[in-house]
Description:
Blueprint: H1 6-13, H2 20-38, H3 56-59, H4 61-64, H5 74-82, H6 86-90, H7 95-101, E1 104-108, H8 116-120, E2 125-129, H9 137-145, E3 155-158, E4 160-162, E5 165-166, H10 169-172, H11 178-184, H12 187-203, E6 208-209, H13 238-254, E7 258-259, E8 261-264, H14 284-290, H15 293-300, E9 305-308, H16 325-335, E10 341-346, H17 350-354, H18 359-369, E11 373-375, H19 382-398, H20 404-417
Amino acid sequence: MNHPSYRDRRRATAPPRLPGRARNARRLSAAAAVAAMLLVGCDTGTPKASPHSSGPGVSLAPSVTPSHSRSTFAPALTTAATACTNSSKLAGWSNRRLAMLTIAVPVSETSVSDATSEVSAGAGGVLLFGSKAPSDLGSRLTTLKSHVPGHLGLLVMTDEEGGGIQRMANLVGSLPWPAYMGAHWTPAQIQQNVTKVAKKMAAAQVNMDLAPVVDVDGRNVAPSHTNPDGWRSFSGNTSVVSKAGVAYMNGLRAGGVIPVVKHFPGLGGSTYNSDFGPARTLPWSTLQKVGIPPFTAAIKAGAPAIMVSNNIVPGLGTNPASLSPTAISSELRGKMGFKGLVVTDSLSAKAISAAGFSVPAAAVQALRSGADMVLFDLGSNVSSQTSSIATAITNAVTGGHLSRSRLIDAAGHVLAVRHVNLCS
């Protein structure tokens, strides 16, 4: 059945034509009304208009707007379609909830439910400690993840490097020390063997590995109080470390686990182990030639996350790198162009307290410097420590010592590494 067109009905009922200036005014008024409807925010739940929508706001536009002015509405349509971002959503979160998202809570892998209250409060991740994982770790972690507010996912991380640094080899299989891999395996073999382990990690609901170590060291000794690397390093040769590190990283990704490349800007040749006291890396001028290339290679290969060390870097300031805006914001973010997640090494390290920072104060300084997520050690006071860190971050924003935009940016990186889209 044929109906009169909208234009025909409009002609039949329209009042006498107005003078040109009045007609233009009426057109501008109608256009403004359309634009207002198109600019409705993404958080209101109001359907967004699109060029092909059948809603009244758009169907009227062709009749009251000259054809040559359609392009005037294109930016408004584009803005309405893209206005909702993770950042715009996070801007509506409280400072406390944002702060919690930047914290990884330490927990024993044999008792992951101990972190339930922190996860329920919005912690961005948990860090597993131990040396033998329970056979039902996967189901326990699935239960823990069910407590995440909004079911936005949870970073479940551990140290599965190989050799003596393995938390769950009984469950996922063992790897040799990286020094052995670098000396005896090709990059393809490294990737293949790491992928096998990563697939079992993912099956156990562990989705992040604090590895690979891409420090260029080469000392043929076990890691110790005085030497943080030793066999944890693939080699003393920069090229070998670069290739092995990327292979290890790609092996984790192929198995469904997020790699965290560490320890920027390189611990090879350090004066001491920062876990036990103040430590210095080689001079920055030397690291740029020897220690930085493996990180550059990893970034070019798509590294999703990088851990920053607690060592002081001569030539880059007097604070540990994890608390240094020069190391993180200027070098790693700025000059090297890294856009992924930046994680601190444990802020419980003696090098941090020796620099004059409590764990909560260090967390604030790390975020100010450009880090996105803070780590600390398992102890008897995890719950109170987590609360103290979140409070320190919140108070820093309120007091103007940490910008809210920086906190939102950090929280955004935590979500991005898990591919969480708050607008979907």
